[in-house]
């Protein structure tokens, strides 16, 4: 590999080790240093071994009266980084507001949502179109419509993007879509019924194909477009996870991305009936977890159950906490993001027992808080600039 000439050149292997530890923003700038560096950044080895643990927070809502949803990138600095003193308090502020163009939210604009996150890539869906987005490299790709044949006598078709996963065996990213077809008989005598299909998109081949249906119900994914956060796809170590249900009750649906096989797991005994509690799935320390809390009461306790292999274990209980509602996900060290009763973004730290309000208001419908890692994974797309995605620095939230 040719390198820029200096008085004292570093060994190529050492240079590469340094580059592998740099943030994505720096790598995007260094692509212009020399062609060999630019080529190296695009190799499978570099993408796989890029060691960057920077986590980012993206908040989706509707701000300033706009009907088009905005994604707000939040800064995640502590006081020590800003002032040089001890770690006093974790600080969250709006860093950028990102507005999506009409092609990405071409249907009902209020429905644009994040269906899943995988290796720094976000899968967006508005009920009509699916978009892959790498916020770190600012690359975006609008997926083509599915080419899978539909059943005969279809009146109408609805589809819900289930999410995104990574196939380690083939080094490929795959998107799953639940297609629900409303059908009738040829003479329109037999009453209407629904036939579901699973369509799978491969980024590697840029093509669609159909895979066997898991034979469980997960129509509640439609609530992604309201305030129901449970339909969000959680990708962990090669497996995608969703809530689902069958005739026996609630369960977790698994999808092995490499083997393309579905499986299920029953929920643990939460110690209260399903009618008495809300439950959500989440990623907790790189493991699948459920967050459970009672529906009633001013103060709420959140039980965290973690799946180890095939066994559910109650890991801890967070709370009681006054004036909070639905959980939004975990941060780096087990801190829990929540929505307050006043629809503000707050965070509870189990270590200190403190509840911190960041002064960021969350509209009642369609809000999401997404945690993702920086990534240089390419998606065969175009730049945000060409896709007409606009970023505005420190746009007012309220």
TrEMBL record:
It comes from the Eukaryota. InterPro entries: F-box-assoc_dom_typ1, F-box-assoc_interact_dom, F-box-like_dom_sf, F-box_dom, SCF_F-box_component. It holds the Pfam family F-box. Residues 10-50 form the F-box domain. This is F-box protein At3g10240.
